[in-house]
Amino acid sequence: MKIWELKAGDILTIRCKQGESMVDLKAHIADVRGEIVFLDLIRHEGKILDFSSPNIELIAIYEDGLDLPKAWTKCRIQRQTVAGKPYHVLVSGRSSVRVNRRRVSRVALGLPGSMYVAADDETMDITVVDLCANGIGIVCGKKIEQQGYKNLLIEFTDPGHDDDEIKVEAKIVWQKKLEDGSFRCGCRLVQAEETLAYYIADKMREERDREGA
């Protein structure tokens, strides 16, 4: 899917990454003309943002509730005034990266990892049960208290996939105590590296190849 196939009224998440910093911003599509997407001006903390720095990496993410998110990398956003109205203009020549259909949206992993709980200044061992574009399932040794505005920092390495190191920030949505006293947790992803979508897509292709073997 090309980004100009979106429609006026659709809502995008613009993921901005600069160095180690990352922030997700909501953007409303005002119009689509040719291969250009016109966005209502994007503001953060009341200020209109400037995306002109060459050091900013921009990813546009679209969720329609029917499929996993579609993401466009290597985006560019510039200010432009058309017929007296200012816009942020979004362009990307790449097709979207779509992880897969909802029926196979979650990748089963069962890999060891670690989780840093900022509120307790504690790092604990966990098992990463499964992963999708929006969330991550884990098992940890104790119940995690509400974290407020602080995110959980989760890391794991996949030795069967070129030792890929995955790092995400997440918030716990639900917890369930298991018979052995550990806790199964479902977490919503708040921030993740660009490579996450490609990692999930590769894992799903591997699953399909195994099923078709």
Describe this entry's structure for a reader:
This protein has 213 residues and is mostly beta strands. Helices cover 8% and strands 53% of the residues. It contains one helix and 16 strands. The protein has one helix at residues 195-212; strands spanning 11-18, 21-33, 36-39, 43-44, 47-48, 57-62, 70-72, 76-82, 85-91, 97-98, 107-117, 122-131, 135-140, 152-158, 164-177, 183-192. The longest helix has 18 residues, at 195-212. The chain starts with 10 loop residues before the first strand and ends with a helix.
Feature tags:
single chain, mainly beta, 16 strands, 53% strand, 213 residues, 1 helix, 8-stranded antiparallel beta sheet
The total of beta strands comes to 16
On the 0 to 100 scale, the average pLDDT is 84
Order of strands, main sheet, comes to 8-9-3-2-1-6-7-10
Class from secondary-structure proportions = mainly beta
Inertia-based shape: globular
Number of continuous helical runs: 1
Strand content: over 45%
